# Entry
Amino acid sequence: MGNFFKEFTKNVHKHDDLWDVLWVGQQFYQLLGLSPLRYRGQGKIPVPKRVPWGAIISSVVFLGFFVVHSVSDLATINSSSYILSNGFRWFQQLVSVFTSLVAAINAIYCKKIARLVFSLYDFDLKLSAIGYPMDQKSQNRWINSAALLISSFLVTLSALTAYLTIKISHGSFLKFSWAECFNGILSSVPIQITSQVFLVISGHYVNPKISNCNTFLFTSQLFPTEPEHVNSFRLASISKNRSLLNERIAQIADLHYFLIQLTARYNGIFAVQLMLTHLGATLITILSWFSVYRAVVSADGDSIFVVSINVSWSLYYSVYQFMYTMMGAQVSFEAKQMGVVVHKAIEIVTDEDIRDVLLLFSAQIDQRCPEISCQLFVLNGTLILSTIGFICTYLVVLIQFDLTSNV
# Structure
C-alpha cells in the first residue's frame, strides 16, 4: 500500500502523463472496490466489470447524510417562510432527481464509456506517432487546478448546507414524533440512495465527461493557428521530402476522421446527459434567482441565508454547464480554423500532388466537422446567449404570476 501511494504521488506531482495518473487513480478505486473498470495485468486497457461491492458500502455511508436531509425536509415543510417551505425543499429535490437521472444513464452506458476512454488513449498514441504529441503537462495542470477549485467550492457549500440544515432543524425537530420522522425519512431516502448507487456504479459520472471534453479541446487544436506555432509545419525534414509531406497530410486527415468518429460516439453516449444537465442547471438557476426576489420582498430574516446557499449551488451548476458549452464552442472554433489553414495552404501550394491531397482533406473538413451536441442543440456560444435569454424570460413570467397572486 505504501508503494502504491508513493507511485500515485509521484505521477501526480510530475504531471507527465495524464493516462498514468488516471490509471493509478483507477487502481486506488479498484482497491476500494468502487471502480467500474478493471485492467488486464499491468496494462492500461480498461475493461468494464460488474457492479462492485463497494457500491453497497458507499450507499451505507451516504445514508447518514440523507437522514439529515430528510429531517431538514420535515422541518421546512410546515415552516412559515416561503423560502424554507418551498424554495429550499424544491431546490434539493430537483437536484436529486436530475442527478439520479444522469447517473442512471451513465450507468447504462458504462461499457461504451470504457470503450470511448480506450479510444481516446489510442488517439493519443496515434497523435504522438506522427510527431504531434499533446501537451500533457499543460492539460494536467489545468485539469488538476480546476478539480482543486471545484472540490474546495463544493466542500465550502456542503459545510454551509449542513449548517443550514442544523439551523433549520434546531427546535423544529422536537415538535415531530419519531414515527413522523421515520415516515419522512422513508419517503425521501429511497430516491437519494438509488441516486448514489447509480453514481457509484457509473464510476466516472463526472470525471470522464470533463476529461473527454478536455481531450477534444486539446486534440482539436491539431492545426495550431497562432503565429508562434506556424513553424512546426515548416520542418526541414518534411518540406524537402514531398512523399513524406503527402504521407503526413494523409495521416492528419485520417486522425481528423477518427476525431469526428470519437465526437460522434461521445455525443451518442452523453447526449441525454448533456441535455438533462443543461435543463437542470437552467431550472435550478431560475428557481434560485426567483427565491432571491422572494427574499427581497419578504421580511423573513433567514431567507437571505437560505437564498445565498441556493444561489451558490445554482452558480456551481451554471459554471459546470458553462464549462461544457465553452469546450464545445472551442472544438467548433478550432474545426473552423482548421479549415481556414487548409484552404490557405491550397492557395500557396504549387505542387499538384500535395494540392490534390489538401483538396481531399478540405472536402472532408467541409462535409464533416467535429462538434459537441445533444442532438437537440449544439454546445457553442449561441447556446449561452439563448440560455441567458430563456432564464430572464421565465424569471419575468414567474414574477408576474407572483405579483398577480398577491393582488
Remarks:
- The CA atoms of residues 9 and 21 lie 9 Å apart.
